[in-house]
Amino acid sequence: MRPVGILGGTFDPVHVGHLRAAIEIRDALDLAQVRLVPAHVPPHRPQPAASAAQRLAMLRLAVRGVAGLTVDDRELERAGPSYTVDTLTGLRAQLGRRPLCLLVGEDAFVGLTTWHRWQELFELAHLVVMQRPPVAAPIQELPPALARAVAGRWADSAQALAASPAGLVWRQALPPLDISATRVRAALRAGRSVRFLVTDSCLRYIRRHHLYTD
Ligand SMILES: Nc1ncnc2c1ncn2[C@@H]1O[C@H](COP(=O)(O)OP(=O)(O)OP(=O)(O)O)[C@@H](O)[C@H]1O
Ligand SMILES: O=C(O)c1ccc[n+]([C@@H]2O[C@H](COP(=O)([O-])O)[C@@H](O)[C@H]2O)c1
C-alpha cells in the first residue's frame, strides 16, 4: 500500500521550502499523499504571529491544485499543545495498517527525545528525516537515547517503507532551499519582497490581512 506522508509545522507562513520538500518526498517515496498539518499550539516554541485560522487559510491556498498535497486541520480541533503522538494516533485509527511516514527536518529529529511520548512515535509511523539547509554533514552522533531507539530501524531502501505500517527510519536528501518562515516574516517586516518565497495566493492573503508587518 502506498504510504501517506505527514508534514507537521507551524506554517507561519507556509513557504516554498515546505511545498518543495513535500513534493520531493512525495515523488521520492511514491507517497499516496502528503498531509500538511498545521499545529494549533506548537509545543516547543512561542505562539505564532498569525492565528491558527490564518495559517490554515494560507496552507489551503498554497496547496490548491497541487496533486497529492492536502491540508489536515485535525490539530486545530484540539485544545492544548499539539502533540504529534496524538495526531498520529488519530490518523492511525482512520488509516488502519496503511504505512504512515512522519516527515521531520533533521534539526527536529535530533531533538526528538524532548517530544511528548516520543518513543511511541515509532509504533505509529515511519520517520523520514529531511535534510534542511544549511546542509550539515549527515548526523554522526545522535543523543544516546535516540541512538538506542533508532538502532536497527534504518530502512535499506525507500521502497521498504511501503511494506510495513510503521517503525522504520529513512533519511531523505532534498535539493536544498534555504528558506524559513522566520526569513519570510523578517523580510515582510522590513518591507522587502517575498515574491517566489511564498505562493502568489499566500502573498495576496498576507497583504489583505496585513500580516507580519509590525
Ligand atoms: N526550506 C526547508 N527545507 C526543508 N524542510 C523545511 C524547510 N522549511 C521548513 N522545513 C521543515 O518543515 C517543517 C515545518 O516547518 P515550520 O513550519 O516550523 O517552518 P520554518 O520555516 O522552520 O519556521 P520558522 O522559521 O518559523 O521556525 C519542519 O519539519 C521543518 O524542518
Ligand atoms: O509532539 C511534540 O512534543 C512535538 C514537539 C515539537 C514539535 N512537534 C511537531 O513538529 C512539527 C514541527 O514543529 P515546528 O515547531 O518546527 O514548527 C509540528 O508539527 C509540531 O507539532 C511536536
UniProtKB/TrEMBL annotation:
Catalysed reaction(s) here are: nicotinate beta-D-ribonucleotide + ATP + H(+) = deamido-NAD(+) + diphosphate
Top-rank taxon of the source lineage equals: Bacteria
Gene Ontology MF terms in the entry: ATP binding; nicotinate-nucleotide adenylyltransferase activity
Domain Cytidyltransferase-like: residue ranges? 6-186
Which SUPFAM superfamilies does this entry report, sorted A to Z? Nucleotidylyl transferase
The biological processes this protein is annotated with in GO are: NAD+ biosynthetic process
Reply yes or no: does the keyword Transferase apply: yes
Q: Which CDD domains match?
A: NMNAT
Pathway(s) where this gene product acts: Cofactor biosynthesis; NAD(+) biosynthesis; deamido-NAD(+) from nicotinate D-ribonucleotide: step 1/1
Record keywords: ATP-binding included? yes
Q: What is its EC number?
A: 2.7.7.18
Q: Which UniProt keywords apply?
A: ATP-binding, NAD, Nucleotide-binding, Nucleotidyltransferase, Pyridine nucleotide biosynthesis, Transferase
InterPro entries per record: Cyt_trans-like, NadD/NMNAT, Rossmann-like_a/b/a_fold
What is stated as this protein's family in its record? Belongs to the NadD family.
Q: What does this protein do?
A: Catalyzes the reversible adenylation of nicotinate mononucleotide (NaMN) to nicotinic acid adenine dinucleotide (NaAD).
Q: Which HAMAP family match?
A: NaMN_adenylyltr
Q: What is this protein called?
A: Probable nicotinate-nucleotide adenylyltransferase
Organism of derivation: Immundisolibacter cernigliae
Task: Report the gene name.
Answer: nadD
